[in-house]
Amino acid sequence: MQVSRFLRALMLGVVPALALALPGSALKDRTTPAPADKHRVPAPLGTPHHVGFAVADAAAAVKRLRAGTGNRFTPVRVSRPVVTVPGAGTGRVEIRRARSLRGAPHIELIESAAPGPWRAAADRARPFLSYTVRDVDQAGGRLTYAGLRKVASSDAFSFWEGVGGVLVQLIEDGAAPWGDDGRPSGLDLGRVRNLSILPCAPRAVKDQLTALSGITWTPAVSYDMPWTLGDGTTVTVHETVQLGTALDPYVSIVTQAPALPGNACSDGRTPFYPVFLTADVTAASAQLRKAGFTRLAASYPLVGLYRAVGISVEVAHVSFLPA
């Protein structure tokens, strides 16, 4: 069956082509609040510098993502900063970190058994947005303005929680992991091209993201999309997508009815995942499966959703990008 370029863009769930096609898509969202005092509120943070995941095993997550996406990662680095977590006190904790070398954005992984927002189950990572900043305390003023609350802090990083349990990290560059574990073999899927966020309260999450980042949004678009699930059954999902106008990466707010496996939200949990683009979705899907990812759903040959170590990853055809 022939599928138009426009329909393919819709089926990705990020609709980047729509950002250019719809009138007024570059206009500012009128719901964006304006700081009462521009001299005191730090500037918006922009699109995320990292797509982060708190995981139960950072080394295992690096292994899967490296083999599945073809991205190079730093070795897992161990630090023992003094951290304050409201309700748990202040003390020195062991934290393991790694991140992909290719940025805009990096994939960041964090592991710690200590109480805090980084606690994760083996089958459910906790995603977060992350920004590299010069001064964690100063940049935190923007998150306070946007209505987030601080849930962990140290001298070099802090974690904040917003509507729907969305986590945001601020981290100074010197606290980030370094090094290179070498180029993996196989297909290189490149950098993350879109971040799909699936909240239960899309308007509230979108408005808070606008307040902290300055991202503006295209009009929402709804459509029905057929998916084949991992067990072979077929389901038609009604999706509504609102795409941010900023690039590197695109950020999209997505709702699904019914939600695909792994995409169900709650008042305190908002799933999101990175999207990679490729000229060969079938080959990319085979590589992810070989790396230990399980297929959650697919609409071949256009898009596939996979999961390993509690992290969901989507691969889609390059034609979804605007020309």
What can you tell me about this protein's structure?
The protein has 323 residues and is of the alpha+beta class. It has two domains: 5-33 and 188-320, 2,3-Dihydroxybiphenyl 1,2-Dioxygenase, domain 1; 50-175, 2,3-Dihydroxybiphenyl 1,2-Dioxygenase, domain 1 (Roll), CATH 3.10.180.10. The chain is built from six helices and 18 strands. The strands form three sheets. The chain has an eight-stranded mixed beta sheet with strand order 2-5-6-1-7-10-9-8, covered by helices on one side. It has an eight-stranded mixed β-barrel with strand order 11-14-13-12-16-17-18-15, surrounded by four helices. The chain has a two-stranded antiparallel ribbon with strand order 3-4. A hairpin with a 6-residue loop joins strand 5 (95-99) and strand 6 (106-111). Helix 3 packs antiparallel against helix 6 and helix 4 runs antiparallel to helix 5.
Keyphrases for this structure?
alpha+beta; 8-stranded mixed β-sheet; 2,3-Dihydroxybiphenyl 1,2-Dioxygenase, domain 1; 323 residues; disordered N terminus; 8-stranded mixed barrel
Task: Give a quick rundown of the structure.
With 323 residues, the protein is of the alpha+beta class. It contains 6 helices and 18 strands. The strands form 3 sheets. Strands 2-5-6-1-7-10-9-8 form an 8-stranded mixed β-sheet, covered by helices on one side.
Structural class of the helix and strand makeup?
Answer: alpha+beta
What would you call the shape? Answer: globular
Strand neighbour order, sheet with most strands: 2-5-6-1-7-10-9-8
Task: Return the CATH architecture of the largest domain.
Answer: Roll
Radius of gyration: 19 Å
CATH topology of the largest domain: 2,3-Dihydroxybiphenyl 1,2-Dioxygenase, domain 1
Work out the number of β strands: 18
By DSSP (H or I, 4+ residues per run), the number of helices equals 6
CATH superfamily of the largest domain: 2,3-Dihydroxybiphenyl 1,2-Dioxygenase, domain 1
Strand content: 25-35%
Biggest beta sheet summary = 8 strands, mixed
**How many structural domains can be distinguished in the coordinates?**
2
Mean pLDDT: 88
CATH class of the largest domain: Alpha Beta
Helix content: 10-25%
Order of helices and strands: HHEHEEEEEEHEEEEHEEEEHEEE
Q: For the terminal residues, how far apart are their CA atoms?
A: 23 Å
Poorly predicted runs: 1-36
